[in-house]
Amino acid sequence: MPRDRGARMGGGTLKDLGKDASVWRLFRFIFRNYKFRLVVVLVCILVSSLTSLASALFTRTLIDDYITPMVQAPTALFGNVGLGPDYGPLAVALIKLGAILLAGIIAGYAYNLIMIFVGQGTMQKLRSNLFSHMQTLPLSYFDSHSHGDIMSVYTNDVDTLRQVIGNSLPRLFQSVITLAATLVSMLVLNIPLTGVAVGMAAIMYFVTRKLGGLSKKYFSERQRNLGIAGGFIEEMVSGQKVVKVYCHEEKAMEQFRTINEQLRKSVYNANKIGNIVMPINSNLGNFGYVFLAIVGALIALGGSESWLLGGLDGAALTLGTLVSFLTLQKNFTRPVQQISNEINSLVMASAGTDRVYALLDEKPEPDEGKVTLGRSDDGSWDWQSEDGGRRPLEGLVSLKDVDFSYVPGKQVLFDITLTAWPGQKIAFVGGTGAGKTTITNLVNRFYEIQDGTITCDGFNVADIKKESLRRSLGIVLQETHLFSGTVMENIRYGRLDATDSECIEAAKLVRADDFIRRLPDGYNTVLGADGGNLSQGERQLLSIARAAVANPPMLILDEATSSIDTRTERLIQEGMDSLMKGRTTFVIAHRLSTVRNADYIMVMDHGRIIERGKHNELLDQKGKYYELFTGNQIA
Question: Cβ contacts of residue 557 below 8 Å, gap of 6+?
């Protein structure tokens, strides 16, 4: 089961979010990359918020200065009877209000458009950072994490942040600004009613705080279960053939039902808490509106000669003031409701942000090497030290007293000592799990040894830059992997500056040219995912051709012919011998016939080298190698 990266179970309030380091890291990341645009957004939000207040305050002017005088004394406002009403002042006021509201509409459109750009840009940068950082992680990270769970960070978690940046953050800013401006306006209109409104808002905040305390836990569980479900689906898709071979469809469906049910429960719990906040606050807001209307009516009917019953400007509570205040009360509770809703979005984003930054915080594989690989004037390979010194690359590889453990406390290699002289072919044989592949993984520093030393041409491999070390070692892995693209592009993956003719020569060398030319478009045939339209043997031939075009000084062949039939194996053996000629080569093979001509054969058993020598020498010893080669058990 994938490990839950960074899913903390804190509360879901603004206070808790304020303590969430990953959320603040995200905010700093956004501000650092889009500082100017965010300033423009804040200005637009301010304009949009103030224009909505202007329309609410205009209600008082409309009622008190125009409607009420008309009702009480029509001629005072519209002139003498028979001259007709004069709507000029009202029209001017409405035009001014229309201009203000138009500015608010433009400002609202502008900041939404900018935030879409900021949101998508942030997602692009985050995904780029995630992918770039992922390239620096050691293989041990991918061994211990489900690939589907890692993919979920790129999809589910990052997309959660997009929704928050594009929608929740601007709404939150707008709500805070509107809340502050509305509070000042309400105090100016009427102090007692403002106190009632603030009290209702405090109740809404208390309810939100209590409900929000459960939100973070369930949203974190939701994100974790999304990763688990994604990992399981990815495994089932890639292993569908194995599922069908062993008739495990029912078992797979049963497992998925369990995982899917866990996901359903976590999503249900997260949405249950998140979705009840808005209706509760909405109803509280409606109750507050009715209560304020009653209190305001009582104050208006009773008179408000005292400033205690009026506003900061000492104005009485008129009908227009009451209507305007009730409109402002809607503007006051709406931001409180929006803040409550956006807290849930931020909580959900917090869970996703934790996982994103947990991946970004994973330590890259160490590389303190200073020796690099280069070419001398005559085109030969050489090692170049930091002080400018050069040493020819000869291919002398030595392991001395090497111990290694994948997991602390479970040692898999013991006291491995061997020397591969330049141009020699060293073969490793032994049962599954004996440690053959592990040795080659240590030579190219896919993993770091716990004890002992590994040197290449006298340099400790820890002192050689990993990029240079791995460029010096061409590797054909037991598990082939081809990328989406043409056959030519997959061969060229071994050396990106290789010409078409060089790629074709490499394919001919390993006897892949014949089957490639029989493909529908030859070297331009487009391969499906992982070369799904080729046989396993054909995929492995392309993998060998990829190593051949790289033309490395040294080679590691990890079961390079394991998926090739005996006839094809004989055909490519000559090409393989040509490829290995003059190169220090490490060969891992279960087919002992392929290593008979090795300079030295290392027989592995339970992480130790128990026999070493040439083919005939080992047969004469009649030990483990004799048993493996002949199939005869030695008593």
Answer: 475, 476, 576, 580, 585, 586, 587, 588, 589
User: Cα torsion at 405, 407, 412, 413 (round to 10°)?
Assistant: 0
d(CA 246, CA 241): 9
CA dist 129 → 138, 434, 489 (Å):
16, 38, 26
pLDDT tens column, 252-275: 888 888 888 888 888 888 777 767
Considering only residues 556 and 230, tell me which one the structure prediction assigns the higher pLDDT.
556
Where is mean pLDDT largest: 12-21, 77-86, 242-251, 386-395?
386-395
- In tens, the pLDDT along 401-413 reads 999 998 888 899 9
DSSP letter, residue 366:
P
Residue 420 pLDDT > 90: yes
HSE, CB side, 13 Å, CA atoms: give it for residue 573. Answer: 14
CB 159, CB 355: distance < 8 Å: no
Return the DSSP state at 633: P
CA atoms of 593 and 619, how far apart (whole Å): 13
**473-503 burial, b for 16+ CB within 10 Å, e for fewer?**
bbbbbeebebeeebbbbbbbbbbeebeeebb
The pLDDT tens digits of the residues spanning 149-170 come to: 888 888 888 887 877 787 777 8
Q: Which residue has the tokens 């840009």?
A: 121
Average pLDDT, the chain: 80
Q: What is the CA radius of gyration of the chain?
A: 37
Asked if residue 51 lies in contact with residue 97, where contact means CB atoms within 8 angstroms, the answer is: no
Assess contact for 355 and 450: CB atoms under 8 A: no
Strand partners, 9: none
**Cα dist from 448 to 108, 349, 439, whole Å:** 56, 36, 11
Alpha-carbon span 440 to 478, nearest angstrom = 12
**Owner of token pair 């990815």:** 234
Strand partners, 604: 430, 609
Q: Which residues pair with 203 in a beta bridge?
A: none
> Between the CA of residue 499 and those of 482, 484, 493, 584, what are the distances in Å?
19, 19, 11, 25
SS3 content of the chain, % helix, strand, coil (to 5): 65, 10, 25
Q: Using CA atoms in the order 82, 87, 88, 91, what is the torsion angle rounded to 10 degrees?
A: -170
